[in-house]
Amino acid sequence: MTDTHTATAPDRLYLVDGSGYIFRAYHSLPPMTRPDGTPVNAVLGFTNMLMKLLADMDAERVAVIFDKGRKTFRNEIHPDYKGHRPDAPEDLIPQFPLIRDAVRAFNVACVEMEGFEADDLIATYAKQAAAQGIAVTVVSSDKDLMQLVRDGVALFDPMKNKPIGPEQVREKFGVGPDKVVDVQALAGDSSDNVPGVPGIGIKTAAQLIDQYGDLETLLDRAEEIKQPKRRQNLLEFADQARMSRDLVLLRDDVDVPEPLETFGVKAPESEALRAFLTENGFKSVLAKVEGDLIAKPDDGAGAAADPVAEATTADADYTLIQDVETLRAWVAEARNVGVVAIDTETDALSAMRGGLVGISLATAPGRAAYIPLAHRSGGEGQLDLGGAGPEAPPQIPLEDAVAELKDLLLNPGVLKVGHNIKYDLHVLARVGLEVAPVDDTMVLSYVLDGTRLGQGTHGLDDLAKRHFDHTMITFKDVCGSGKTQITFDQVTLDRALDYAAEDADYTLRLHRLLKPRLVEERMVAVYETLDRPMVPLLADMERAGIAVDPAVLKDLSKTFAARIGDLEDEVHRLAGHAFNIGSPKQLGEVLFDEMGLQSGRKSSKTGAKSTGADVLEDLAAQGHDLPARVLDWRQFSKLKSTYTDALVEDINPDTGRVHTTFGLTGTSTGRLSSNDPNLQNIPIRTEEGRRIREAFVAAPGHVLLSADYSQIELRLVAHVADIKALKEAFHHGADIHALTASRMFGQPIEGMDPMLRRRAKAINFGIIYGISAFGLARQLSIGRGDAQSFIDAYFKEFPEILDYMERTKAEARQYGFVRTLFGRKCWTPGITDKNPNMKGLAERAAINAPIQGGAADIIKRAMIQVPDALAEAGLAARLLLQVHDELILEVPEAETDATTALVKRVMEGAASLSVPLVVDAGTASTWAAAH
User: Fold this and answer.
1) Helix 836-872 with 534-544: angle, nearest 10 deg
2) What family does the Swiss-Prot or TrEMBL record give for this protein (predicted)?
């Protein structure tokens, strides 16, 4: 940020919707007070957001615009305008003047005017600036400001961290920015008490304006409307539509109190800023701005909020919602608050098959409600197993609850927060409820803390205990366990209320605690551009599933069973007697006691000699047939039990497809995981394993498209380590492994011994994972000394990689984490461990994490772009799977070439590296043939 700019560059102006920022700030932090007892949570949240904006923006002018009061000229047009909105929360009112003080403390123009809304002042300044050739960015997520979008005036949504242009306006209103007012005049706005025309919503309004051009033409020609009710309403409520237009049309001719010339960006006066921060107890903020407005890189400590501003925990106040009127009141409250936590209860654990039993909502810490929808027991007495009969509790009919919740859950002005909300998206979708926009506290926790506290630590129960020292009611507490366990629809309402409402309550508390840390720890971009958009995208992919041919799987199971039987006979023949090949104890007795084979490794659990795969591989490499055949037996047994048998059971009977569950929070590097079933671990290194992919098929009239990044991790190594020889080779499309072998072993590429290339390939990929001489020796079946010589030769030929490795290990030791190219933190617990084995393991993980994590980030960036690109091109393909560096799509046969070209273009353009990204793509009727 600077006070000067070049004479040729156009001026840029940022107009910040301060009122919108206030409520976001208020709901982003738990209650806090400064030393004199004044509440300051909104002040602190606003200060953090303002600092972030000033640090990130690239503009010469900036102003924050506020609403002055509730009454404006619009109340003279329509006395009930915004009349139903509740008063501001009691603890927010004293913070309003302090927030203005915050703006002035940072030496930023602060503007408000009696009788006009902030939107009118923004419209006026935008018009004035555009007339002077100044590029305007309006910082707001308010839909009412979308009418301002045009050449020279852009909107930026700080909640979604993305610009809003004409296309986004058209997605929202069905028309361009110049017609937004006409559509709003017809559809009205219940949140502002703008009446509109009864019976006409946004979609219908957009169609009418598209057909007739503008509101006046439509009203003048209303007699032409074919639908009787619609025609009648347009004729009867024409004047109401015109009044509504006057209400939603922003004034751009206000005699504003401050001229544009006073909006120049200026450094804050240090004494004034210091005094403001000190008075409000913001010591951590003061430490950041001392000497520099932009916060310094964090040290990984991850402070969530200012320690001086003490948080208070509200007492729990949980409500059971059993009638529509109560539900409407809660919906209105959620709409006015702007952030609501949501959680669903089901009668089964499967997101794809569980039936909706109830929904919980939370609007403030300690304030939550539960909406029972399919319970079979109401009170504390005996469970009624007779269904929804006389003993069933009073509950809102599902269709009525859906009707009341529908607009709220799709309202772009209300953020819906869930913990693992992807599960809830599936459950709600099956009853006709779509949800957007969403935040996920499980993903927030993962982005901020990753695996530094151990694997699998982002569950709601764990986080509530860690952050609030609160022990949550468990599912076992309300449903029991074992043979006596009941499903949630059998839980009495009193117990269901406490359990379900608590989940929503603590989800909201977590959101208020964790979301501000994104700014504090500079993780906003990772969350907002990489992981948060993946939540609804993965939900769509899981819902789509992939078709599987059970006949192919059953045939493979028969083939594998026959092979298992043959191998069992052969193993028994080699042993000289029958024994249980699956028993490590019996196998160990055969190998080490009866056959006298040698192995120094022992099982950590039993102390007996190990019969693990690594031991059997070593023995097989020494020329022993029996351990080699046992390895084959294990391979076929796993293929049969884990894949060909199990996948048949995983086919959803309703869809005929397999629906995996993708995990966003299960790895240390940001890679996705796949479970129930795991479709990322299907073996592809053996011919038998590859055959399993033959069962994955395209729907009739479609093909499967496999698009796979070529050597993406090696390309990232070349980029991050700045290895000039490898970068040049990638630019020329050379055989990277042959080039490596040529440079290491001094052999020409022409006529090279394939074994040399194989060794170079093993080193190229092994280096990424910090391979040791011992590991390389095992992989290439060579001596440890020869393996070390190969590694030494590699580092001598490519010294940049060794520099990268040492630099990365030092970074991990200093901060406890390393970062990917896109800012993701990959934590490295054990990096300072005194145990050399643990330390070495952590160092290898640190070397690999920026590479594997960078590749994961790149394919996420591509995945996020693909659906929009397909829609824009009018193509009907859909994403089905992501398997590490590969995307699988189902494509109509007629669109194969166009879709392949588009997907390759998007994937290859997902990141800008110093080497080209290359995607190999193939299409076929099966996954095996496409890959």
Assistant:
1) 80
2) Belongs to the DNA polymerase type-A family.
